[in-house]
Design a protein that fits this description.
single chain; 60 residues; mainly alpha
């Protein structure tokens, strides 16, 4: 492996780490849904906090 290969691998690893970090932060903040079909983020098992459904509806 030469220097360019090492840089490329490091860049890809950094991108993956940033994506995982973003997913974890979104999950902690409740911005994600469980992925059930037909869900607009308002089903009871998606972790939507009371009062946030109105915000979601207004944004759309």
């Amino acid at each position: 492996m030469n220097f360019v290969d090492v840089l490329l691998i490091l860049a890809i690893a950094a991108c993956v780490a940033l994506v995982v970090r973003k997913l974890i932060r979104d999950k902690r903040e409740g911005k994600t849904c469980c992925g059930c079909s037909g869900c607009s983020g308002s089903c009871s098992h998606c972790g939507v906090q009371p009062g946030t459904q109105q915000k979601i509806a207004k944004e759309k």
